[in-house]
Every structure is written in structure tokens, then in C-alpha cells.
Amino acid sequence: MTSKKLIEVALPLEAINIASAREKSIRHGHPSTLHLWWARRPLAAARAVIFAQMVDDPSSHPDL
């Protein structure tokens, strides 16, 4: 049996949304605002999704 991934069980959307909004807010004088990319994605959301896809759900291994 394959174990479930963390993204299938729980994903802290509220915390990810807050981090993404903070990252995407306009900061004058910051190097990231020098050039805005056409399809810029907040890195916090991308990192959270990739991490949750790779990590097994901790509750699927209660003996560890």
C-alpha cells in the first residue's frame, strides 16, 4: 500500500495565503520590484505545494 502524501490530507492554506500576499505586496526600492515578470508566482505557495507533494503524511506512520 502506498502511503498518502501530506497534500492529500492537510495543507495550511491560510498560512500559505498570508505568506503569498506578503511576498507579492509591492515594496518600493526592493530588487524584486525592479522588473515584474508576466506570470510571476509567489514562491511561498510554490514551495509549500512542492513540499507537501514530496513528504509523506505523518499520521500514516504512527509507529515512527
UniProtKB/TrEMBL annotation:
Domain DUF1156, residue spans: 10-61
Matches recorded under InterPro entries: DUF1156 (IPR009537)
Protein name, UniProt field: Protein containing DUF1156
Natural source organism: mine drainage metagenome
